[in-house]
Amino acid sequence: MIIPSKNAERQDRPPDTNLVPDSFKDDYVQGALKPFLLSGIYGGERPVLPMIDLTLSKEAAIPAHIFGMLYDSWKPNVEEEGTSVFLQGYENRGPNNERKKIYYSALTPDLYGPMYAEKIKRLLDQLFDEQNVDKPLMQQYYQSYFDMYWDLHLGVRGDDIPAEIREIGERFMNVIGYWYPTRRVVHDNYMRVRQLRDPLRDWLGQRVEDVDEGRIPNPETTFVHYWVKNGMPNKDIIFECFHNFLAFSQWGNTLYNIMKDLDAVTGEPSVRSWFEKTMTSGPDEMDNSPFTPLDRFVMELFRTISPNGGSVSSLAAIAQFFGAGYTGFSTIITPHPETSTAPHHWNNPHDFDPDRYKTATTSEQNDETTCKEVGLAQCPFSKEDFSVKDGRQADLTNSAFGAVYGVIDGEAYPVCDDAGYAPFGFGYRRCPGEFLTVDFVKDLLRKVWAEKIEFRRLNIADAKPLPVAPNMVVKDDIGFKKEQ
Ligand code: HEM
Fold first, then answer.
1. What is this structure's pTM?
2. What is the CATH number of the domain that holds 193?
3. Which of 208, 293, 454, 461 has its CA 20 to 30 A from that of 59?
4. Closest of 452, 363, 294, 476 to residue 104, by C-alpha
């Protein structure tokens, strides 16, 4: 395969697309490869406050070559095909981040135990079944992953998921894992995703109707139920259901890194000793801190693993003095690991220390007084509640810096709202899947502890490479044993 030469990336003339393999389809070259080569990605600053200014926009803020995976026309076509809140600038989300709050209505922490835990525990039970002892675990994870994924979204699993629907999920993972559109593996999987998107959309349309009309058992155990009830437009629900391939892919990366940290031989000693300490001294007891000991341990895993490397923003060029008149996409990355370990945020940024969250500031505490204390004349984000319409007594609100959280039956469920805790992003665009993700990891850890699961590197010569997250492929070489 001929890799495009360095010259092709110069910004002052269009890339020489003659240098790509002949087998790459022309629409792919024009729609994915060329925008990728023309775009620039820049490392941004480490925020001091837990927010990102609106100048760094979230509108269409994903790397340029991904649009063809999401839209037929290779670029956003929101009117006809819908969109995800992930791709929306604040100004397009309705008053006070309404669209985000509608998305969040399906992911508030009160729902985890009664609605979602069983579906997630089923995956964990399959993963750590006796018959998987000493097998490479990530392959086993992906055996159950799409059942869990579609069960959470739509209440379907097993034979009710058609082969084409499973295939598009796998193809999507290959594209995002292998990432660079110059690669043949990306091209081939990408084009297949585009072929399968129509059948996926049709299938999703019918399944969303099934949830809406109660044609599945327990519709309230699906995300779609809350999105419908709280007024998300139908085409956006369909879009969110497959755009979430990106969000959920990060669970693979997270799982792999937690197993690596807990590995009995090559793991991180401080993580292993904190795990033991946490699990032997009331992991779920409240101890005058906003977060339980197990919450704090999981938060510290996320701060140190940082499965998502940076918040992605688009930034318009205000001048371009040379060249062809087109600046390409400019993507700015607000970095997470660098912010989470900045010495201006912590005295011991490089220690594994879950106790740091005992006194950490929460989204509930960051109010008008905080704004005054940090020297602001007024709060950057107004604190307007969105009351859900799905029968619960739940108000979705936000901190003065924009981080959304829920007050359910009068009880607040805040997040740590300190810029030094960056793994789930910042402010109005902070991850709405945070609690679900933390709860998934808590259940993973409870199981590992209760069943005395020990992770170990497997001695296999040709471990299978597996895409586990955007731009990340790992060798599937971690297995487990159960101590007697
Ligand atoms: C390990 C797991 C995850 C990590 C580390 C993670 C991290 C993040 C980060 C850093 C952002 C901010 C991105 C930015 O500002 O550019 C974000 C946004 C988002 N995440 Fe997650 N995420 C995870 C899982 C999930 C899950 C499971 C869901 C859905 C159930 C989800 C849904 C979203 C959505 C919709 C946004 C956009 C929010 C907005 O712009 O308002 N994420 N996530």
1. 0.95
2. 1.10.630.10
3. 208
4. 363
